[in-house]
Amino acid sequence: MRIGELAGLAGVSTRTVRHYHxxxxxxxxxxxxxxxxxxxxxxxxxxxxxxxxxxxGLSLEEVADALSDDRGRDLVEIIRExxxxxxxxxxRIAEQRSAIATLxxxxxxxxxxxxxxxxxxxxxxxxxxxxxxxxELLESLIGNLDxxxxxxxxxxxxxRMLAVYAEFEALVDISPNDPAVDELAARVRDFGPAxxxxxxxxxxxxxxxxxxxxxxxxxxxxxxxxxxxxLMLSHWQQ
Length: 238
Description:
This protein is mostly helical. It is built from 13 helices and no strands. The radius of gyration is 33 Å and the shape is rod-shaped.
């Protein structure tokens, strides 16, 4: 057989056959007097096996190992690894489809149901937009909103939180050196620890640098609000 006939019977291109020769996957056949390659049945069988293994997902290096008589890993071992990879892909696809189904059920709302529930508590509140973004950031960093749920389960703490938000929003138009900034930071000195005390014990730590996190949270705040937030954090860390 000539190379075109071999490729046609195996269902591959002549370019593929030549590539397999170059990388040593397919041995070079004997050549006729005119210089053309002359393929035999064993070459066709080897090429068919190689094509089948490639279709299963093996790399060309793994195909070479599998087809070798005297070296490389056992073919069953390689196929088992591929099967495990495919199972993992199926799991990822199932999780993605589940997330898509949830998104479709929410009419395309990218916020999680937990986040929506938290924001419902802040409906019509001056701090709703800012706190919503902060909650979404916290959910992304930690993976849940258990802390918010704990706070919202305490009516007294919830009302105080909403009152603090309202006062904080009122700082937007004042000077950062206005006494109101220091007064608010001092009044909520015990608020942060009270909230953090409700943190579930299994919440993972946040690896983000505190200054980076503060910069992200304070983006868009006025100078007075940023200074107040820094004072609050300073009090809470003492």
